[in-house]
Structure prediction request, 120 residues.
Amino acid sequence: MNIKTHFQKDWIYYLALGMAVISVAIDLYRPNMAPMLVAVLVFSAVLGWLNVIAPNKAAAALGFWVLAVYVALALLEMIPATKQNIFSSALSFVPAYLGAYGGWWIGTKFKRTQPPAPSL
Prediction:
């Protein structure tokens, strides 16, 4: 496996991992889940708008990484006592899919297929 072609091909999944880590960090320092869900919605809209992979794959990657980071933090006992139920983070799949398909739709609606006509 060539490392250079691997990162050129799969960079979007690493971007989703970074976005998931930021979303979880936001959630760990807030008492409710709303800021994390908004962050997931915005990040998945960006992933959908980039249109590198299908929106369902982008949403699944982001939602999976949010859940995986939570489980990893729970296994390392780094979850604060105020966050009793880590599996409520599975709710992050809902805004992930909404944002990815919304970003994809906006990207397809506003992308120009032809360059604009020159103005005189």
In short: The two ends are 52 Å apart (CA to CA).
